[in-house]
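Problem 12. The chain below contains 391 residues. Write out its predicted structure in token notation.
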Amino acid sequence: MQVTIQCRPRCKRLLARLLLLVPLIALPACESLGYYKQAVVGHLSLLHQARPIEQLLSKPQLADSELANKLGLVQQLRAFARDELGLPVGRAYSRYVELERDYVVWNVFASEEFSVQPKRWCFPIAGCVAYRGYFSLAQAQKKAAALKREGFDTHVGGAAAYSTLGWTADPVLSTFVQRDEVTLASLLFHELSHRLVYVKGDTEFNESLASTIETYGLERWLAQRSDTEDVQALRQQLVQRQQKKAIQRAFTDAVAKTREALGELYQRPLNDTDKRIGKLIILDSLRKRVHVIAHATAWASAYQKWAVDLNNAKLAPVALYTRWQNALGWQLAQKLEYAGCTQLPEKLERDRLRCRQGLEQFFEAARQLARLGEQARLERLQEWDLRASAS
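Solution.
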């Protein structure tokens, strides 16, 4: 679908700002220029459609609707993220876009046939990352097909949200606003965390840090909501989330062990035929393990669907969000304890300032990590990971 945007002066300034980023990367072919064009036009089309939440909530036809309730919740979550967590909210998530699709973007992942390491693409803002995003499913599938013809394992996955890292005011999207309160809070805290600290080219650190802040932010949000009339519903949502997290941990561990086994296989002095046979056996073992993990749960069908057509590329994104979460979670706990933050609901108001101080100290530790070189940052995270495992 072709998108035509009528640009006001402010829109034109934003377009110029985004287009200035394109020359920062060498464009080896017209395909690259086309990719950047779809990214800029896709994002600008969202911003063009976005309407201020305050304006929408003032409309009588939206009064007491489910959408109005969720948009009101978003406003509360933004204020909490800014005032209690100290996240750089700015104008992010102050506008809303209704999309007629399940995902806002589709990410393409690729790995060589005999490698567990994902192919990386480099971009002006994000640095080098292990995926390539498209606003069109057809374009994502076309890119995946081209990579497959080159001999790569490929995977296309949809995403309900993304962050421009503070370059623009990211809008609230219909692809995620209808989620329950716990899930919506988690998503917003996660995406806003990317605006705080972001290291170009280190996806595992960036996602693990955002997941750590997301988890802590959700705990604080639920603690201050414990005296509301919705507490029973929130507790049920939290129980479901904890159950889902437990399954996700088992799933992530299974994928990590599979990637390790595949990595060892690919390093062995075997011919390609034997490697392919070994690869099929290892992936089939993972498929069976995933079915066991998710059996008789509310998420069984989703996991079973994921376990179809397994390959190196499909495994690659699984560990991105959790690789360093134990290490960073341990460091956050240390900072909170040192600041005297008990995180007990009954002492929430008393410890409010202490917890904020501990969180700020953790943010500074994360900034220091971000300033380190890649190897030094890796060694520091490995050290924290060992200390977390020993505690």
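Discussion. The chain has a mean pLDDT of 87. Students who got a different answer should revisit the alignment rule from Section 12.3.
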